[in-house]
Amino acid sequence: MIYYIARFTSHPTKLYKDSLLYALRHLYGNRHIGLTLGGTGGAQLQAEMHAISPAEDDKYRTATHADSGFAEPGPSTGGHTQDMGDTTIHSYCGQHHLTTLCTADAEGYELSRAVASLMAEREFVTEIGYPQIRPSPAFCDSSGSVFKATAGKTNKKGMYMQKRIKFMQDAERWGETLVTKIRTDDNRADILTKMLSTKLYKKMRDKILNVKAAAVNIHAFVRHQVAQWM
User: At 205, which CATH number?
Assistant: First the structure.
C-alpha cells in the first residue's frame, strides 16, 4: 500500500489522502509487531519468537468479530474483523455471494468466513513470533449461529450452509477457534453492516480505528500533517 501511495506524492487526490490516512492508522495500531531481516549467507526474513506468559497471552491473542446486516432482498451484507488483543488489525465488509434463506443463515455464512480468516491470521501471527497458546475466539451476536457452530449438528436446510457449519465445528474440534456469543453492543463488526446510534457508532469506530475518544485526535493530526505537506 505504501508503495502505491508513494507514486502519487506530487499531485495526490483525495483518494490517496484517504489511503494514506488508512495506512497510518494501520501502522499505528500494529506498532508492537516487528520483523527482523537477517541470516547468514543470503538475506532471509526472520521473526523473533517471543516466550509468551499466560498474562501476556490475552494481549497477543487473535480473535474475530462477525456480523451480518438486516434482512434485505438478494444477497445479504456481512462483515468481520481480524483482531489481536484489543487491536483491530483488519476489517472487511461486502455482499455475500448467494442469497441466504434467513437471518440466522446470513449470520452463519459470515461467521464461517470470519473463522477462515481467523485461522489464517493465527498461522501468520505464529510465524512472526507470537504463538497462539489457546483457541482464538470468534465472536458472534447471533444465538442461533453460535448454537449451530458448537452443537455438533449440521444444518439440514441446504448444502451451502451444511458445509460451512461443518467447517466451523472442525475448526473448534482442532483447537483453532472457539465460537463465542457476544452482546450486540460489544460486537465491533456491527459498524460494518448496519446503521448505529451515534453513541454506539463512536464506540465501534474507535475500536475499529484503534483510537480512544479521550486521547489525541489522530484524525485531526493526520489531516493537519497532510495539509502541511500540500
Answer: 3.30.420.10
